[in-house]
Amino acid sequence: MEQILNIQQQLLPDLVEVMRKRYEILRHIQLMQPVGRRSLATTLHLTERVLRGEVDFLRIQGLIQVDSIGMHLTPNGAQLVSQMEPLIKELFGLAELELELQSYLKVGKVVVVPGDADQSDWVKMEMGRTGAQVLKQLVDGEQIIAVAGGSTMLAVAEMMMPTPVFKMSTFVPTRGGVGEAVELEANYIASLMAKKTGGKYRLMHVPDQLSEESYQTLIREPQIQEVLQCLRSAHIVLHGLGDAKRMALRRQSSHEVMEQLKAEGAVGEAFGYYFDSRGEIVHHIQTVGLRLQDVNHAVKRIAVAGGISKAAAISAICPTLKQDVLVTDEGAARAILQKRSF
To answer: Domain holding 245: CATH number?
Structure first.
């Protein structure tokens, strides 16, 4: 197969590009369905005229169906997309990229999706779909799943489907509210995952940042203690990775904290801990939620993060947290490997 692909790339490079373009159209339709032609053309940065020709071809081949509410994949189209995924990874070097990144970051398994989440929202949706698939593969029986907040975790939640393996699972937020849009809070995402899959959930009704006095008062509350005990016995931790400065701004951190993070060279954040480029913790906020030692005690740790802007955070944090699975994108993967020291 590899030899055939090499021959195609040398003799028929245009054919390879056409295949990738049609695969991306099918994948976008799968993620956005039902979707109108104009919306799809905008997302793919294609003219409606060019897209119309491709849509007509795919419809004639029986891969998509077009009706009044938009386009969606036929069963044959969905099957083809699934079959093409490993081929596309091999053809465009993503399989090799996964192995290189896996070795460099010392991660159990790396899954790289095409594109750059900083440039296209559909890439984040694709990471969400992949993250949901990874979680489904790792869940086994009555388990507690600790879930973080953020836009990437929301993408994972939105891609989850009702599955028998999740019915005995309990989704628990890793922390309280950061004070951002409610749909990005861990509480909302944990409840959405439970609703989508048929599982159960618990909520943590506390702010993300607390004074020492408030922290000591809250952790003595029976209800909070019960949720924390549940959270700290999590089998699986599912989380994103944040850029240090962006996360500090989202938390409305003080000027003093912002200056400290800058002086210490903080590049990434996870679970309220800020890391420098060497993976050293340079700052930690007082929060009721999952602690770093709890994360390391979990049976499985899954990180989902992408975009070139997250490359430094991924590179710094993943080796420290000893991730079992990292789901990322091509943009972040190539940026990380380009900056490695040989």
So the answer is: 3.40.50.1360
